[in-house]
Amino acid sequence: MERENKFLKAYLKDLLGDQITRFWNARPEPRAIRVNTIKTTVAEVKKRLEQWNVPFRPVSFNPEGLIIEDDHMPLSQTLDFFLGKFYYQGVSSQLPAVVLNPQKGDKVLDLAASPGSKSTQMAAMMDNTGFLVLNDVSMKRIQALNTNIQNIGSVNYAIYRQPGERIGNILPEYFDKVLLDAPCSALGIIHSHPEVYSWLSAKRLAKIVEQQRQLLVSAYKALKVGGEMVYSTCSISPEENEELIQFMLDHYPLEIVEIAPEIHKLFLPGLTEYQNKSFTPDMTRAIRILPHLHEMEGFFVVKLRKTGRRHKAVKTYHTFKTLAYNHPDVEDDLRQISEQWGIPEDTWQRYRYIKTRDRLWMVNTQIKNIPQENFLNAGLLLGEKRIFGWKLPNDSIQYFSRWITKRHLAVSEEQLRELFNTGMTNVPGVEKGYYALSWQGKAIGSLYVEKQRAKIRLMHRFKVIL
């Protein structure tokens, strides 16, 4: 802290009182992972952690969450991480999706989705069914979102790039559930991210609150009557939380929904008064997390239900249709992929498709129509048509691992390590073309062979832990 922030110092002292010293001295939140149940089971990941001698304990409110008690080993360099079997996600960050509790077949909006920790969590909770709309305004952040959602093997989502404030007008009453993990002041994590101390002011806080208000109104408009939404921030500021929720209750037909008692009792209730302002008694149904009390990042979570509408919802959006497996635009492509990779042709009828130039994407069969405005992409990238046939990317190879019966290229442990460390390895006698990297009989990645050198495309190179 190079310069004293008098506003913030006084603000936190007023908010926390005699807890202020404990707040500043709070221990950082422990590292945590979340098991991707689209690809594996909690039991399997626990078994692997035990094999690596990595101690862990369960996240108290999330059966798929595991707290890593000794982070001596870089789990992000394991083969299991590359395969998308688990995902690094903060403990507090796992709570909003658990509280929202999206179900199979739901239409769900993640209004400010990047980098995708909660998006990937909800995709798995929905068991790859339904329709998950992921929105963000920043293309840079969307790139990370797309990488993460592809890696988990999701086929139930579409990504959009547009200001979140507009979605409620574009897709009115379209969603069963909405998650708004709002951009915020980050006051709940300031003890471990002191850079916040240098820029936050009363003026900036007011600007943040106004943006959050606009996003909340948009979320309300996008939600069906009877639908539920979760609003969360990594801030402990009442202006961004209870005060803002009270504004929504005063101006829109909404009610605060009780959070499951076994979860709610673990944390503090929402405030019912602050600086001579009173809030509804139901605000105690919200959750407050303080880092010095809960050994987690500071967070606020509240669940709301839409009980009515202020204005009649008018549909103004246009959609495009996804394609069935036997549609003339994709039928030949799918047949070629089957012939090249040995994937049974009856596999394709389980999905619907989007064709963009030389790329083929696939989504679940429930996604028949996709809103068009500011749409970027949807579902798993199945393959790209190249000169030497169809290239299936790493995520597609992993998704279809059990069905791929052709073009397996088995490697030794030495070759596998070299591939991840350098991006290539020698494969004497292997002809030019695309192959499935085969390890212990399973297809785990995409290889391109040229001049008897196999190459793999990775986000970064590393010394893989098997």
From TrEMBL:
CDD domains: AdoMet_MTases
Record's protein name: 16S rRNA m(5)C-1407 methyltransferase
Domain of life of the organism encoding this protein: Bacteria
GO molecular function: RNA binding; RNA methyltransferase activity; S-adenosylmethionine-dependent methyltransferase activity
PANTHER family recorded: 28S RRNA (CYTOSINE(4447)-C(5))-METHYLTRANSFERASE-RELATED (PTHR22807:SF30), NOP2 YEAST -RELATED NOL1/NOP2/FMU SUN DOMAIN-CONTAINING (PTHR22807)
Keywords for the protein's UniProt record, in alphabetical order: Cytoplasm, Methyltransferase, RNA-binding, S-adenosyl-L-methionine, Transferase
Binding site for S-adenosyl-L-methionine: D136, D181
Residues passing through the membrane, by range: none
InterPro entries: Methyltr_RsmF_N (IPR031341), MeTrfase_RsmB-F_NOP2_cat (IPR049560), MeTrfase_RsmB-F_NOP2_dom (IPR001678), Nop2p (IPR011023), RCMT (IPR023267), RsmB/NOL1/NOP2-like_CS (IPR018314), SAM-dependent_MTases_sf (IPR029063)
GO process terms (BP): RNA methylation; RNA processing
Family according to the record: Belongs to the class I-like SAM-binding methyltransferase superfamily. RsmB/NOP family.
Pfam families for this protein: Methyltr_RsmB-F, Methyltr_RsmF_N
Entry keyword S-adenosyl-L-methionine: yes
SAM-dependent MTase RsmB/NOP-type domain span: 21-307
